[in-house]
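R.M. (postdoc): so does anyone remember the format we settled on? I'll just put the C-alpha cells first.
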C-alpha cells in the first residue's frame, strides 16, 4: 500500500452506522500549526527535564512531535492549542485501560504547557479560546469517543 493511500485509510473514521468518513488528515495549514506546537513542546521539554530528568518521553507518534501524522492534522492541532490555552488536560493517545479510557497525560502537552510561548498565549487570551465551546468539549471528547470506538471494535474482534 502506498504512503498516501495508507494515510487516507488511517484518517478514515467508521461511524456507528458503518459510514466511513475522512476526518482529521494532515494539511499544509495543519503542518504550520503543528510546527508551532512542536516548538513549544521542544522548549518546554528542556525546561521540564532540567528539573525532572526522568520525565516520560513523548510517544513516537505524539501530536507534539514535528512531522508525525497527528502533528499535521488541523483538527488535532486546534484541539491541542485549545487545551494549552485553557490549561485543560490532553491525554496520551497510546495508553488506554480495558474500557478504552485514557490512563496517562500526554507528555508533549505537559512539556508544551511549560514553555514561555504557551504561558504568554494563555495570559493574552485570558485562559479562554475565542469561541463559545471550550477546548475539552470541542475536540477532546470527540477524539476520545473515536478512540474508544476503535478500541471496542478491536476488543470485539479478539
Amino acid at each position: 500500500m502506498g504512503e498516501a493511500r495508507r494515510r487516507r485509510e488511517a484518517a478514515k473514521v467508521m461511524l456507528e452506522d458503518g459510514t466511513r468518513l475522512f476526518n482529521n488528515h494532515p494539511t499544509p495549514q495543519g503542518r504550520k500549526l503543528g510546527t508551532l506546537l512542536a516548538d513549544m513542546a521542544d522548549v518546554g521539554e528542556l525546561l521540564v527535564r532540567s528539573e525532572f530528568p526522568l520525565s516520560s518521553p513523548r510517544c513516537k507518534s505524539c501530536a507534539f512531535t514535528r512531522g508525525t501524522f497527528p502533528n499535521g492534522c488541523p483538527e488535532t492541532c486546534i484541539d491541542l492549542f485549545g487545551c494549552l490555552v485553557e490549561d485543560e488536560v490532553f491525554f496520551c493517545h497510546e495508553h488506554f485501560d480495558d474500557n478504552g479510557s485514557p490512563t496517562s497525560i500526554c507528555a508533549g502537552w505537559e512539556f508544551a504547557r511549560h514553555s514561555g510561548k504557551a504561558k504568554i498565549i494563555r495570559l493574552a487570551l485570558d485562559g479562554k479560546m475565542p469561541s463559545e465551546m471550550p477546548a475539552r468539549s470541542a475536540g477532546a471528547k470527540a477524539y476520545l469517543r473515536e478512540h474508544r470506538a476503535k478500541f471496542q471494535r478491536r476488543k470485539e474482534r479478539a
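R.M.: ...and that's the designed sequence above, right after the C-alpha cells. Also worth knowing: The helical segments are 3-11, 28-51, 74-85, 107-113, 116-124, 135-157. The two ends are 25 Å apart (CA to CA).
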